[in-house]
Amino acid sequence: MSENLFGLTVAADKGLDDLQCQRLLSENRRYQEVMLQYRCALKALESRLEILNEEFSLQHDRNPIESMKSRLKSPSSIMNKMQKRGLSLDFPTMQANIMDIAGVRVICSFEEDVFFLAKCLKDQSDIEIITEKDYISHPKPNGYRSLHLTIRLPVFFAEKEIHVPVEIQLRTIATDFWASLEHTIRYKKNLPINAEIETELKECADSSREWDSKMEHLLHILT
Description:
By secondary structure, this protein is α+β, with helices and mostly antiparallel strands. Helix content is 53%, strand content 20%. It has eight helices and five strands. Strand 4 and strand 5 form a beta hairpin. The longest helix has 32 residues.
């Protein structure tokens, strides 16, 4: 019989928040073992990206990566996603179906850097590509542009090798600036978004695309 996810199904139905979940999970050894795999996968992926960044810097005298930020989904967020999808709340089901528990956001200088890094990762023989969504070539209706990869990479422990899924978002500085503020306006203020505001947000997204194109053009002129 599968182990019940976190041992918190009943409590979660009553509306536990993240802090309460974390407190109850602090002594749940199984949960700690599973999440260790995702934390180590993030470290392994970040290490690979740092190596690519240093190599590119040596060859081209600039860094393609401006910054990286990693995160693990909170317990309540994982449970809510599984419940919405009608999945049984156990660890094997979670590991087989929830591919974005571990995530890395990579902010790049230019769009060509996004595709360069994505190609380098896809070319690594021990990385499996689960999904690829190119919102740069095909932006979302609201103007969002980013390249999303879900990969599975090996993590080596003392007595075993485990292949762990990680979601990667690669975007430019301009897109990250727009996306961060768009998220604040759309979700943080809890205010209705009318058609006029939607249009202006889309215009801002289009402007960020123009900035990317112009700056990349200038880079090519100089190099």
